[in-house]
Design a protein that fits this description.
Blueprint (H helix, E strand, L loop, with lengths): L1 H4 L5 E8 L5 E7 L2 H8 L2 H14 L31
Antiparallel strand pairs: 1-2
InterPro entries: Dimeric_a/b-barrel (IPR011008), Jasmonate_Hydroxylase-like (IPR052936)
Protein name: Antibiotic biosynthesis monooxygenase
Organism: Streptomyces ziwulingensis
Length: about 90
C-alpha cells in the first residue's frame, strides 16, 4: 500500500514503528481532508482493507487527527577532534 499511497495528491509521508512482540503502528500524513478522502476511497486501498480484515488483522484502531503543532529535534554530530602534530 505504501507504493500506492505515494501517488495520492496531498500525501505527505508516513512513519512506522513495531515492537519485537509484533505490536505496530503506522502514521500517515496528508495535506488536508480532501487528500485523506482520496486515499480512503481508493478502490485498491479498499480491497486491501477488506483482505486485511479477512486474513491478517484480529483487530485494529484507526485515529484521524489534525496536527495543530509539531516540533522535532535532531542532535548535531560531535565536531571532529583536531589533533595537532607532536613536537
Amino acid at each position: 500500500m505504501e507504493d500506492l499511497v505515494k501517488d495520492v495528491p496531498g500525501f505527505l509521508g508516513m512513519d512506522h514503528a513495531q515492537t519485537p512482540g509484533g505490536l505496530g503502528i503506522t502514521v500517515g500524513y496528508f495535506r488536508d481532508a480532501d487528500a485523506l478522502t482520496r486515499w480512503r476511497t481508493d478502490a485498491e486501498h479498499r480491497a486491501a482493507q477488506q483482505r486485511g480484515r479477512a486474513e491478517w488483522y484480529q483487530s485494529y484502531t484507526l485515529h484521524v487527527a489534525k496536527v495543530e503543532r509539531s516540533h522535532s529535534f535532531v542532535r548535531a554530530e560531535d565536531p571532529p577532534t583536531v589533533r595537532l602534530p607532536a613536537g
